[in-house]
Each structure stands twice: as structure tokens, then as C-alpha cells.
Amino acid sequence: MESNLKKKYGLFTAIAMVVGIVIGSGVFFKAEKVLTATGGNLPLGILAWIIGGAIMVVCSYAFSIMATRYEYVNGIVDYAEVSLGKKYGYYVGWFMSIIYYPTLTGALAWVSARYTCVLFGFSIVGPEAMAITGFYLVASYAINALSPVLAGKFQVTTTTIKLIPLYLMAVIGTIVGLITGMTVENFTTAVSQVSTGNALFTAVTATAFAYEGWIIATSINAELKDSKKNLPKALVIGSLIIIATYILYYIGLSGAVSNSVLMENGEKGAKLAFETVFTKVGGTALFVFVVISCLGTLNGLMLGCTRGVYALAVRNVGPLPDTFKQVDKVTNMPTNSSILGLLLCGIWLLYFYGAQLTASPWFGVFSFDTTELPIITIYAAYIPIFIMLMKKEKDLTAFQRFVAPVLAILGCLFMVVAACFAHRMAAVWYLITFVVVMLIGVLFSKASHREEI
Fold it and tell me: How many domains does the chain have?
């Protein structure tokens, strides 16, 4: 099966696309968690960003090897299918459409509202925050469902905007911190003593959210000139640029205000850092860019969410394939799939609020972090794919066939172990929820099979 897409992207464009796809709200949202988890130990926090980034590099390189073997492959579901068959591809697709996309999309709507509330001085868990969250979620859905072209243009615009506050803080914040001595003080003084092992695991798990999205970048291979050489280069170089950007931003924040102040102020810490370096007016203006960056990430996730069940339906699997594979003739969008995607986002947003934002969790022990654990699940799903890469692709070099996949597997296992240490029993309750959802997927899989017969 060959792709009919034209080879139109060069290496530079491919690198820019990788950077643009991955960099988003995560670095703003999780920088404070990394700092808190490490007790304000800046070198330990930087090590967490490096480890999380290194895992991204080795996994993306391993997938780039597969991408150049199958140029028609467009995403993780397709990789799962060509590696382990249609059944495994279906289960990965079911997980992506029912858990992964809607949990992250709902959470990102709140993250976008969170920083909007910081901008206007509202409570991040009050009625203002939840009203804005609902508005952002529905608005993102409307843009994607009614005008995919407009959604695409918005994505391109926010990709440029999101880099502005990161690089300005990375450069100016670091310079200011070196002049005032704040950077050196933050590097040499920890705010509180923490267990190094547990702190590192928790921090690395948090970085997974910020680094997520690189798998999407492998889908450009069919449109990339000399993809066998350029895709691995684009993914590795792009990943290294992302790691450097995140670390420099993290250091830039430490040059603006002390780690203790950042930790005490929570979600307001980043705004305070921007105002300290760029004055109140300039800091506020740059913080608007942070909100726009979050909205851009939300838009990208909603794009995947609206197509989640459709990706199953076109394979004639999952619930009501004939219903969910229908495409609107005017908007060229899978309308029914989009509606279900929005409903799932609403369900998981309700869960996110009850599990993470209330004084007493609504769901008791079944309250877990939907911004991290679904991402770690994807890393676990990569492992069989990498094993099959070693088993099936016998004409690759020793490095490509064995070294790269083994490193990627070790990286994935590290993420899984880190999540267990970071979330402890919450990871168990998440696993139970995951199993229940997947068993429902099994029932739909069998129903689809009976209909074919």
C-alpha cells in the first residue's frame, strides 16, 4: 500500500513541525509540579526534564525507523496494526478514543481556563474557572466540527505564538537571574528535603505530559522528501530542540524569582515570574500568549478527539460503525464521531473536576490524575510494537533493529515504573478503570465480528 501524498517537506520544515507539535501547554502546566516534586532542587528538576526528553528521543527514533518502512502509516493505531495485527490496532484505537483523547482534552480545557483565571484574578477551581472551561471545550469543538480549515489556521498561529513566552523567559530570565544572583542561589539551595528517588520518579512522570505529541510527528513521513534519512534526523533534532527549550525556560523561571516563591504561589508563580522580568504590563501581555498556547494545544487534542471513534468506524469495528463513519458533505467532518467525542470530553471533565479539584474527591479511592496516567499507558502500549520491530525487520542494521528498540523499551519501562512510584495506589485504581473500559471494547469488538459474519 503506497501513499499518494506528494513529497513536499524538507528537513527544516519537518524539524519545525516536530517542535510545533510537541511544545504546548505542558511546559507551563508541569514546570511548577516538577519544581514542587523535587522540593525546589533545581538540578534534580533539570535531570527529570533530561530523562523525560531522552525517553522521547529514543522512542521517536525507533518509531521513525518503522515510519520509513511503512510510508502510509499515520499514527499509533496504524503502527499497532501493522506490527501486531488488526485486533491490537483496534484495542489501541479504542483506548485512544475512549480514554486518551477525551481525558487530556477535558483537562486541557481546564488548564486553558486556569491560566485565564490567573490572568483575571479568579479562583482556578471556582465557578468562573469551570464556566470558562466549559466555554473553551465547546468553542474548540465548534471550530473543529464546523470549520476544519479555520481550526488548522488557528493551530498554525498558536504554534508560533506559544514559542514567544518560552524563549523570552529562557533568554531574558536567565540573563536577569545571572546579574542578580537569583539563578545561582536557586541552583545551590533546595527549598525542602525530599527523597531523591521518589522525587525524580514523580517529576519524570510529570514531564511526560509536556513531551507528549511526538508520535503525531511521525505521520508526516509520507510527505517528507528523502524520508528514510530526513525523518529520523527531524525527530531527533526536533526532540533535542524541545528538551533544550524546556530546560532553558525552567532555568529562566529560576532567574526571575526564588524557587520558594514559585512553589508558594502555585499557578500564579509563572505570572509573577513574567511580571518580575518584563514589568507588570509586559508580563501580563506575555501571559496572554501562555493562554493562547494552551488553547492551541486544546485545539490539537480536540482535532484528535473528534476523529477518535471515526478511526475505528472506518475499519468497521467499535460501536455502530455505519453511524460513526458518516462524513458531512459540506464540512468534510465525521459529525457523529465529533458529537460523541465532545460527550466523552464532558464525561472525563466531570471526572477530572470531582477527582482533582474538589476539597473531598467525589470518587473516593477511584480518584486519579488523568493528565499523566493515560500518557504512561501509551508508553506501555509501545513496548509490544518495539518487540515486533526487532522480530520482523530482519534487514535493518544491528543498531536500528536491536539497540534503538531496546533503548526505547527500557525508556517505556522506566516511565511505567516511575508512574507506579509517583501515583502509588491511584495507579492501581486507574488500572482497574482501564481494564473495565477495555473489556467494554472487547464486547464491541465481538459484536462487530458477529455483524460481519
Answer: 1
